[in-house]
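Example for tutorial group B:
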C-alpha cells in the first residue's frame, strides 16, 4: 500500500513521542492544545469580531508607547484624597469578612499606624464592625500596591506620569523584606519603620526629585533587564540604577539625613519594585477602554481572589480563586504556611516584565525555585498568548528579542496557556510576614468569563 516511508506527526501524545523515539522513528511534533473548556463558541465569535485586530493593535500600541517618568513622592492623603478610616488594598474589591490573613494583618497595621486603634485587638474589632471604615481597590484610584497593597492617608506614594499619553499612577514606598506591612505583619518594628518612612524617607525623596526633575523609568527598566533583573522579584540592578540617579540630589537636599536614607535604599534590593509597578500601571492604563480589544490591562490578587480587567470591557473585574504559589520557603516554613496569591505586582507581567521576562534574569530561579532552563521556557511560552514584543524591554539571551507583552484573552483561551507570574509568598496567618517566593498561574475562570463578556459588547 505504501511506496515510501510513512511520515509521522504527533500531537500532544507524549507517550507516543517517547515510544517512537525509542524506535528511532522520525517524527514531526506539533505543539497543539485544545481551547479552554467551555470557550469554543465564544472564542469563535471573538476571533471573528471585525473590530478585534485593529482594536488590539491600538491598545497594545498605546501600552508600548507609554513613557513612564518618576516625577514626585507625595502623601496619599494629598494625591489620592484619602480620608481617615479609608484604606485602599491590592486586587479586586473585597470585604473584611472575605479578607485573607495577610490582608487583615496589613489593615490592622494601617489602623495602628494611623492612630485609629491602640491595640491590634481594638483595630480588628473596628475593622470587623465596618463603622467609619471604607475599603476599596487601589486599581480604582490609579494606584497599585505590592502584596496586601494597603494604603492609608499618612503613607507616601511614588508618583509616575506617562509623558506620552498623560496618565498618572501611584504606588507606596517599599519597606524591604521580612516582617513588613505588605506581607501582613504589624508588630512595633513595622509601625516604627512606617513612621520613619513618613517622617524622613518620603520628604527626603520628594526634595531630591525636585532637584533631579523627572526620571525616565522606561529607560531605566530597559537597562536593568540588560543587567539581569526581570523587574518583579529581582530588582537589584534597577534599584542600583535609581540610587545612582537620586544619591547626589539626596545629599544636596538633605545632608543631615542623607546617610540613613541612602543606607536604607542600599539595603533594600526591592526598593525599585514600587516605582516600577507604578510605571507598569500607567503603561497598562494607556491601553484601557478600546472597544473590541481583548487585551488584558490588569492582573491583581487580594489573597482570596485573582482578577483581571480587559481593555474592551471597561472597569469590570473577572475573578476566580487565587492559587498558592509553588516555590522556595524561608526557614522552617512550608506550603501549609502559605497564603493564596496576593498583590498588585502582577501588573509587571501585564506589561511584559516579571515572569514574562525571566529569560533576562536566569538568577531569579535561586529565589523562586526551578532551573535556568525553566526561566527560559517560561518566557518562551508567553509569546504564544501575547500580541507583541516590547521594542524597549529586550532579552540579551534571546538575541535581544523583545519581551512578550500584551496578554490576549482570546489567545489564552485558544492555547490553554495561562500567564506565568513570579511572586513573593505571604504567611497565611496575620502578622507572620513573608514565608517564601515562587511561581503561580492564574485560575482559568477570569479569562473564560472575560472571553464570554467580549461576545456581548
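The residue assignment follows.
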Amino acid at each position: 500500500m505504501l511506496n515510501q516511508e510513512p511520515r509521522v506527526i504527533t500531537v500532544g501524545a507524549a507517550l507516543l513521542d517517547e515510544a517512537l523515539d525509542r524506535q528511532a522513528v522520525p517524527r514531526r511534533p506539533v505543539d497543539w492544545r485544545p481551547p479552554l473548556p467551555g470557550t469554543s463558541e465564544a472564542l469563535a465569535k471573538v476571533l471573528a469580531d471585525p473590530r478585534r485586530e485593529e482594536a488590539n493593535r491600538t491598545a497594545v500600541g498605546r501600552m508600548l508607547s507609554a513613557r513612564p517618568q518618576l516625577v514626585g513622592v507625595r502623601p496619599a492623603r494629598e494625591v489620592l484624597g484619602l480620608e481617615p478610616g479609608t484604606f485602599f488594598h491590592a486586587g479586586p474589591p473585597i470585604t473584611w469578612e472575605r479578607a485573607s490573613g495577610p490582608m487583615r494583618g496589613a489593615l490592622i497595621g494601617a489602623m495602628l499606624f494611623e492612630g485609629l486603634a491602640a491595640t491590634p485587638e481594638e483595630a480588628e474589632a473596628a475593622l470587623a464592625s465596618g463603622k467609619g471604615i471604607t475599603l476599596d481597590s487601589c486599581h480604582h484610584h490609579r494606584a497599585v500596591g505590592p502584596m496586601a497593597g494597603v494604603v492609608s492617608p499618612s503613607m507616601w506614594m511614588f508618583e509616575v506620569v506617562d509623558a506620552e499619553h498623560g496618565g498618572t499612577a501611584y504606588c507606596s514606598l517599599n519597606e524591604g523584606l521580612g516582617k513588613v506591612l505588605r506581607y501582613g505583619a504589624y508588630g512595633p518594628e513595622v509601625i516604627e519603620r512606617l513612621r520613619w518612612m513618613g517622617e524622613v524617607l518620603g520628604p527626603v525623596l520628594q526634595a531630591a526629585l525636585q532637584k533631579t526633575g523627572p526620571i525616565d523609568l522606561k529607560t531605566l527598566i530597559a537597562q536593568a533587564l540588560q543587567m539581569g533583573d526581570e523587574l518583579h522579584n529581582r530588582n537589584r540592578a534597577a534599584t542600583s540604577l535609581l540610587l545612582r540617579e537620586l544619591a547626589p540630589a539626596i545629599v544636596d537636599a538633605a545632608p543631615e539625613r542623607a546617610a540613613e536614607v541612602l543606607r536604607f535604599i542600599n539595603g533594600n534590593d526591592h526598593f525599585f519594585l514600587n516605582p516600577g509597578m507604578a510605571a507598569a500601571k500607567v503603561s497598562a492604563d494607556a491601553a484601557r477602554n478600546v472597544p473590541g480589544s481583548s487585551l488584558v490591562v490588569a492582573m491583581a490578587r487580594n489573597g482570596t481572589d485573582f482578577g483581571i480587567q480587559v481593555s474592551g470591557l471597561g472597569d469590570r473585574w473577572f475573578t476566580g480563586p487565587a492559587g498558592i504559589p509553588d516555590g522556595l520557603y524561608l526557614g522552617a516554613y512550608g506550603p501549609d504556611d502559605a497564603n493564596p496569591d496576593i498583590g498588585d505586582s502582577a501588573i509587571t507581567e501585564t506589561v511584559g516584565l516579571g515572569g514574562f521576562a525571566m529569560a533576562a534574569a536566569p538568577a531569579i530561579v535561586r529565589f523562586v525555585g526551578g532551573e535556568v532552563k525553566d526561566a527560559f521556557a517560561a518566557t518562551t511560552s508567553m509569546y504564544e498568548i501575547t500580541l507583541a514584543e516590547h521594542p524597549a524591554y529586550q532579552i540579551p539571551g534571546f538575541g535581544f528579542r523583545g519581551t512578550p507583552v500584551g496578554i490576549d484573552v482570546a489567545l489564552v483561551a485558544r492555547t490553554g496557556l495561562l500567564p506565568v507570574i513570579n511572586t513573593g509568598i505571604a504567611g497565611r496567618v496575620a502578622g507572620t510576614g513573608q514565608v517564601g517566593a515562587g511561581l503561580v498561574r492564574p485560575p482559568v475562570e477570569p479569562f473564560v468569563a472575560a472571553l464570554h463578556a467580549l461576545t456581548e459588547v
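The first helix runs from residue 14 to 22. Compare this with the pattern of hydrophobic and polar residues in the output above.
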